[in-house]
Amino acid sequence: MNEKENTRISKRLSLHLRHDPAALGLTLAPGGWVPIDALLRALSITREQLDEVVETNAKRRFAFDETGTRIRASQGHSVAVDLGLADAAPPDVLYHGTVAKFLDAILREGLRPMNRHAVHLSATIDTARTVGARRGKPVILRVDAAGMTAAGHAFQVSANGVWLTASVPPEYLYRVD
Ligand code: HQG
């Protein structure tokens, strides 16, 4: 499959596994899983195409279950879903990439999940910069994850290494210049 086709299928997977399964007549089972056979039928793609998209996805956005019969998005959902991720101890420092126009609101009220299920945080500045750059010139915030943990905030890490938390109050945020 060429790169364009791969990206097209990947975007459709993100759309339906994270945001709009109903458009394909699918519902997410607990954990966010959907049966692969139903998904293949709904998208008119083959198992080989699906395997290739999942394996080559640079951000490893999708994961199969241990039986190989179901698939889910590893993070990024807007529909109600409990991924069943266990709480995990984050590194002392995490990062969030955003853009200048959101900065005042973020430093006033903290990071909120907005349309998604959790705030997404990155383990490295580089990844945060890439996330922020989706919207313009990136602005990087350092998150005092150690302080949050000490105060009882829970974190989870997705299968593809994204750190998730319900919200980040402003006192744990520092602008990185
Ligand atoms: C901002 C992509 C105002 C926040 C990426 C962000 C990531 C606030 C936007 C993943 C705010 C939400 C997630 C507040 C947060 N006031 N703005 N209080 N709190 N914001 O897309 O983190 O390619 O939902 O800074 O790479 O940008 O889809 O979150 O700019 O991993 O796999 O509100 O999505 O991954 O935007 O990105 P998003 P995000 P995929």
Number of folding domains? 2
Number of DSSP helices?
Answer: 6
Strand content: 15-25%
Q: Considering DSSP H and I runs of 4 or more, what fraction of the residues is helical? A: 25-40%
Show unreliable segments: none
- What is the strand arrangement across the widest sheet? 1-3-2
CATH architecture of the largest domain: Alpha-Beta Barrel
CATH fold label of the largest domain: ADP-ribosylation fold
Class derived from helix and strand content: alpha+beta
Shape: globular
Radius of gyration: 17 Å
The tally of strands reads 9
Plain-language structure description:
The chain has 177 residues and is of the alpha+beta class. The protein has two domains: 3-73, Arc Repressor Mutant, subunit A (Orthogonal Bundle), CATH 1.10.10; 93-176, ADP-ribosylation fold, CATH 3.20.170.30. It contains six helices and nine strands; from the N terminus they run H-E-H-H-E-E-E-H-E-H-E-H-E-E-E. The chain has helices at 3-19, 36-43, 47-56, 100-109, 125-133, 145-150; strands spanning 34-35, 62-64, 70-73, 93-99, 119-121, 138-144, 155-157, 163-165, 173-176. Strand 2 (62-64) and strand 3 (70-73) form a beta hairpin. Helix 1 (3-19) crosses helix 3. The longest helix is centred in the first third of the chain and has 17 residues, at 3-19. The chain is globular, with a radius of gyration of 17 Å. The site of ligand HQG has 17 residues, from helix 4. Residues 59, 61, 76, 98, 102, 105-106, 109, 111-112, 114-116, 120, 131, 135, 162 line the site of ligand HQG.
